[in-house]
Amino acid sequence: MNIAFLGDIVVDSEIKVNSEVSSFLKDADIVIANLEGVILHQGKRPSSYKTYGSVVYNDYDSVMRLIETVGITHVNLYNNHMIDYGESQFEKTLEILTKAGINVLLEKTNLKIGDETIKLHNSGLAETFGIYDVSRKFGQNINDMLLNNEHEEKWAFCIIHTHFGIEQVSGLSDYEYRWFNRMTQNKPCIIVRHHAHCIQSPFQLNGVPCFPSIGDFAFNFKNKKISKGLAVLFDVASSNISCRVIDCKDYQLKIASEEVYFRGKSAVRLSEMELTQLRQRYINEYREDGPNSLKKAIKYFIGKEKARHVLSMSTKHFIQPFVLDELL
Prior knowledge:
Order of helices and strands: EEHEEEHEHEEEHHEHEHEEEEEEEEEHHH
Helix content: 25-40%
Structural class: alpha/beta
Radius of gyration: 19 Å
């Protein structure tokens, strides 16, 4: 069984796929991608539900054509943009995918081709996404997953597919690295993570291949015309892995010239410059300082912030706690 893992997908216009991409994926029996936004039809679109940060969606015609062209068989919906347009649009996206015969990853999904079967565990930081009640069956909170010492499989001989982290950084925090170390103790076959929207160098840890971030597959939306990520092809029987850098520029998807190497038992860590930049992001984006937290609370109570869960952005939960000790 050959399984391909693709990065984040958000497209608002048609994507042209280079034949080299199709050629690389042709041997994949299963193709898994992270669908980063809900699917909306052209015409009058609903108003966004979210009143902070970026709001994204996938255009129906464009994304369904891309899914068909690339041969995507499974998608992940357990991510932080799934209620950008409210719970009803999340449910409509499920209906669209079901009618198209596309599988949505569950907390535990059995991937099966012929006599070969492998279990995939899907996880993320759902409470911080504000979609826990809507999508709980599609993934498990990674804190629950890591703290549960009674889980039956203990991830042995399985795939860990997860969505959490810090956006637009090249390295891992110490806390994240400890999480990867914990996940690899029980010898899963491979770990693939989404969310950073950039490539983070893969590495081997405790004999387990880890892809801390495979970046974007096709993330072309409004002003973002360039995205980059990894396409990872994993042979379950032999454990062989091959991967390519995928460029998506001006709605053109192609294989880039860069080579991808594993870094042995080392992982790239956050640099001092990245930590300094993250401290400022923590203040600016998450409004942790007193005046901005108070301003946001007032906006909620006068009806300017629609979702109650956005108040948690002024707490230590939304920044994703693993990095706080290194930031503050």
